[in-house]
Amino acid sequence: MSPVIENKTFDEIAIGETVSVTHVLSAEDVETWAAVTGNLNIFDLDPGPADTSMFAQGGGQTMWGATLFSTIAGTSLPGLGSITRAVSLDFHQPVQIGVPVTATMTVADKLPDNHVIVFACRLTGVLGTVLMDGTLHVSAPATKRRYEQKDLPKVQLRREDRYRDLVRMCEDLPTLSCAVVHPCSDDALKGAIEAAALKLIRPILVGPAKRIEEVAHATGLDISGCEVIDTEHSHHSAEVGVALVRSGKAQTLMKGSLHTDELLAEVVRKETGLRTERRLSHCFLIAVPTYPRPIIVSDAAINILPDLAAKADIVQNAIELAKAIGIAVPKVAILSAVETVTPKIPSTLEAAALCKMADRGQIKGGILDGPLAFDNAIDEGAAKTKGIVSPVAGKADILIVPSLEAGNMVAKQLTFMANAEAAGLVIGARAPIVLTSRADSDTARLASCALAVLFAHAQNQGAALLKAAAE
């Protein structure tokens, strides 16, 4: 049975009655306070560089502490049905992040003419240090009320700044010339123009010129600074876009409003495409609001049921992407339904083989472990419960799924049920391919372009080092 909360009427409240509540202000609370109130004061969000003699210990969330008094009044004394009428508080010191504070309210007076209770308020920190004090005037309820206490919804912050960090990493890197293939919808064209505005890409718009102009006019997008190459239809757009990369005029491809199969059919064409000795694979870089860091999931878009050789390439591609975004030694979890090698589950055998291939130098640059179930790949507590001792379990940077179906379900569940953002890139061709979807947010589109810039830069650096070594 749920706990019951009960108020006190004016007549039931006695002078001298006291109620206290202790709470710890976390860093996430500060961010939530800023998100709700719009208060971006540097003392609140970045206390370290903002320290002064007045705020020597950092912080400055004084008004947050004041809300604890209204919390007591509304939920405890007087409780349900009470209304705060006036408040007078003196702020002496800021509320520190991570340090317990105690709000205490004592009934100082009762005003029978209007049923107002006058409270003496005090907020104290460790060792009884007074952070604020003053008075609160509250109208006490006239009727008795009792209700079952309800659980409050959990507030989850969407940490889009993770992708902004990707964009910031590109600020000093060369802008990529990008063949935007068939940008004949508002979302496809908008994504390219916004990426150009941030100097991530220099778009070459490949598609029916008239249709592109109509879309630009309808959406108010300025394409006057973009080169437009006129094509007849989407197949032709894919052919021309790939040819631009082969010729060196474009350094990357971006999918527009054509089907993925149309574009990739031209990419993998033997004589005129962009194939290398490496298998093409798709990587999602997924940022989940409730998870402390972005994570790469592969392959959820291209390889339907990859064999061992294909999975080895999928792993290598994902490792190279992880390195491109600054992960020096990526931790790779090879996923299955269980964490033990089981002959009846082929994905566990392939996971074990991939790990041994890494031991033998056939897969380079990362630390592999598998098979691992999803929970013990991403959660250290789950791994510990299962008794798994591993440098990867609970700390994975990359999740390699057993099949496209599994990867697609993981990515879409995180996106649509956990409010995750998913940026995507196809790797293994002569150039990175930005693979966007109509369901992608503007943030995810820009992040995908940033991934292409970072990956292309890393590949160019690697090629330069190899050339220098050969000379």
Describe this structure in words.
With 471 residues, the chain is of the alpha/beta class. Among the domains are: 4-148, Roll (Thiol Ester Dehydrase, Chain A), CATH 3.10.129; 276-428, Isopropylmalate Dehydrogenase (3-Layer(aba) Sandwich). The protein has helices at 27-37, 42-45, 62-75, 161-169, 186-197, 209-219, 234-247, 260-267, 308-324, 346-359, 374-378, 380-385, 404-417, 442-470; strands at residues 4-6, 18-24, 83-91, 100-111, 116-124, 130-139, 146-148, 176-181, 201-207, 227-230, 252-255, 281-287, 295-298, 331-335, 367-372, 398-400, 421-427, 433-434. The strands form 3 sheets. It has an 11-stranded mixed sheet with strand order 10-9-8-11-18-17-12-13-16-14-15, sandwiched between helices. It has a 5-stranded antiparallel sheet with strand order 2-4-5-6-3, covered by helices on one side.
Name the CATH superfamily classification of the domain at 276-428: Isopropylmalate Dehydrogenase
Tell me the quaternary state: single chain
Overall pLDDT score: 88
Number of β-strand runs? 18
From the coordinates shown, what is the CATH architecture of the domain at 276-428?
3-Layer(aba) Sandwich
Radius of gyration, rounded?
29 Å
Largest sheet: 11 strands, mixed
Uncertain regions spanning at least 5 consecutive residues: 42-58
**Share in helix:** 25-40%
What distance lies between the first and last C-alpha atoms, to the nearest angstrom?
77 Å
* Helix count from the secondary structure assignment: 14
Give the strand order, joined by hyphens, for the main sheet.
Answer: 10-9-8-11-18-17-12-13-16-14-15
Shape: elongated
Briefly note the CATH topology name of the domain at 276-428.
Isopropylmalate Dehydrogenase
Strand content: 15-25%
